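Supplementary Methods, section 5.1.

A reviewer requested that the exact input to the structure prediction be made available. We therefore reproduce it here, unchanged from the version used in the analyses.
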Amino acid sequence: MRSRKTARPKRRRGSGLKWFMVLVLIAAGAYWAASEFLPSRERAEPEWKGKFEQPIFVQGEVMDLPAAGSGDGLKLPFKVIKSVIDPNIRYEEETKSVILTTQRKLVLMKTNEVNGKINNKPVQLLFTPEEKDGNLYLPTDLLKELYGIEIHEDSDSGAVLLYRAGEKIQMAHIQASGRKKDAPVALRKGESIHTPILADMKPGQNLRILQETDAWYYAQLDNGYTGFVQKKNAVLDEEVVIPPLEEQDVPPAKKKWQSKVVNLTWEAVYNVAPKPASIGDLPGVNVVSPTWFSLVDGKGNVQSKADRAYVKWAHSRGMQVWGLFSNSFEPNITTESLSTFERRITTILQMLHYAKLYDLDGINIDYENVHTKDGANLTQFMRELWPLAQEQGLVISIDVTPKSNSEMWSAFLDRRSLAEVTDYLIVMAYDEHWAASPVSGSVASLPWARSSMTRIIEEDDVPPGKLILGIPLYTRVWTETEEDGGTKVKSKAIGMKKAQEIVKEKSLKPQLSQETGQNYVEYREDGALHRIWLEDKESLARRVELAKSLQLGGIATWNRSFASSEAWEVLSQITE
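The structure derived from this sequence is encoded token-by-token as follows.
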């Protein structure tokens, strides 16, 4: 008889796998939930770590080049100084010269030389500029004095934190996190507790707040480490302000004009200086600018036609004398004379010498017909002249044209920068239609003159009080003839008196041109049409009103010998 076996229940295939998968999902969910709430303990180093021994930081950003030296001997790279402190600092490779300019200081240093100059006076430097790894480094002791910068060095990390004059720093400190009062707080790489930790911060540790979001501060430690800390772990402290540079006192020469308006006329001096006795009265004029000085060669030498008797005459009548210095309108010698510090300073020192020798009150710079490539060097020339001229008590002005695309007459002028290193920009608002113009037209229509001034005010941010409106005391007789089916145009410049003589001799009746704001006449003679846009008391009155309406620093007229007797009375209204 066979024995019977106990029957076993059949196992359903796949049930074990199902439970296994359930367990895996539960575990994964638990892991996900844990990772969602548990902060990362992964560590990371700043990207600059190991790249530089002395990284430089400005507002939390690491610079492309490191510092050199330490303590009093700390030096900063020229390129960093130029990018974050002074964009106008200069280095001239040929002579290894470093030129720094501020409102009151002109500093010259040379690499590896202890002898320098400040405002052309010899000084001995504690530390010299030097080249290292192909880069130029400058001593910070002088930079602190000139620019008011402050520097924090961290001895452990080598970090150099650079702060500029006037910069505001929001300080903060770390407060304890959780139950443990001494538990460290993480400085993280990103705005999440799941990003790597850059540093552990102790309660009470100071940091600088750079930016903030809803829940995080972006902050920097003394050692240069920069990252994110949760707001709940940081307490804001006081805002520290790096002392701004002291405002410079207004030079006495400039103070004279702060409550006055300039009424200048240029004295064109060609071969023979005018005899003061022949000039007569100039009612309302408070500045005369004789064209006495000119550039004569590429080395920067200056020729003088100055006249002591003229200065004495002007001063006896209460007028200042701003001697005009021109580049002789010679582009090639201008290029050479502006090309190096030695040549620029030659010109500057000669002009300052003449100003002292002839008791001048100011210098009027007139550089025209200049290659566009030389524009930056002209601006540098003015930067170098400015502090030395102020030290000598001189008023400095520069003549500029209205803005245009003309390469040699306008494009080289950086009016915004020039306004920073002069007392006045004198805008030569004339020659709208120049001598060789292919069409006849006004020398300076009123709408064009207004536009010339407002463009500089609006586009270059030049304060109106720094601008002087240049006014022509001349016009042109345009002669139009018909030739080969076209109109041939030529012109001749004449002064106000000559224009009045033509009107009288030919019994002409001036008509107001609404388009130009000037009186206009025309006549035919010898088969040609002659046209004149008159400069007379009506147009001068409108120009004075223009200067007043824009609240300009004054007016300047070219030139005295072109004026009619009635011109000065009208122009004197600028001060009323």
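The two ends are 144 Å apart (CA to CA). These observations are discussed further in the main text.
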